[in-house]
Amino acid sequence: MSRLLLETVIVAEKTLPLGKQLSYQFTAVRAAESSGRSLADFYSRQFLKKGMDMSTSPRAVLRLRNACERAKCALSFVSHTRVVVDSVLDEIDLDATLTRGEFELICCDLFVAALEPVRTVLADSRLAQSDICSIVVGGGSSRIPRIQSLLSALFGGKVCFPTYNRSAKAH
Q1: Prediction pTM value
Q2: Contact in structure between 10 and 4 (CB atoms under 8 Å)
Q3: Residue 117 near residue 134 (C-beta atoms within 8 A)
Q4: Which positions ≥6 away from 126 have C-beta within 8 Å?
Q5: 36 with 42: CB under 8 angstroms?
């Protein structure tokens, strides 16, 4: 039986003929954290196009990142949400509708990059995609539907099992 666990550390296990297990650990791209920053950077660039530099106000950047993080979490469960920050910069409000599709376009490079460590683990541990019987995804990335679908496609349509309980991932 082989199992692939994805979070900050990716572990692939393969049972060998004598009952031994081969384990490999690799630090993965933190797509969930980076996607929140990419979303905040996207809105910062929108302000910059209008001549307002958000980077001059650390408080505004923090408030925007927090709003983007809330929106990213909401998009795991709904198809669209609003990014709202009152008086984000110079008494100007941010009130934008964000769809899951827009979010995936903004962060698509991060999501594709998150698959590279998976491919590396498979290659380094000499596992084929067909050797993996289940995919357990942990951490913030487990909540992002696009990452789940990319992983599922990588493993020939196998279902990803997200886990939100840290102790459940260790077993």
Answers
A1: 0.72
A2: yes
A3: no
A4: none
A5: no
Measured distance CA(38)–CA(40) in Å, rounded: 5
Structural contact between residues 12 and 3, judged by C-beta atoms closer than 8 angstroms = yes
* H or E, element range at 83: strand 80-89
CA distance 72 to 78: 10
Q: Which two tokens stand for residue 131?
A: 């050797």
For residue 1, the model assigns a pLDDT of 44
Contacts for 168 with CB less than 8 Å, ≥ 6 apart: none
**DSSP bridge partners of 141:** none
Walking along the chain (171 residues) 10 residues at a time, the average pLDDT comes out as 44 44 42 79 92 91 93 91 90 92 91 82 80 76 83 86 57 43
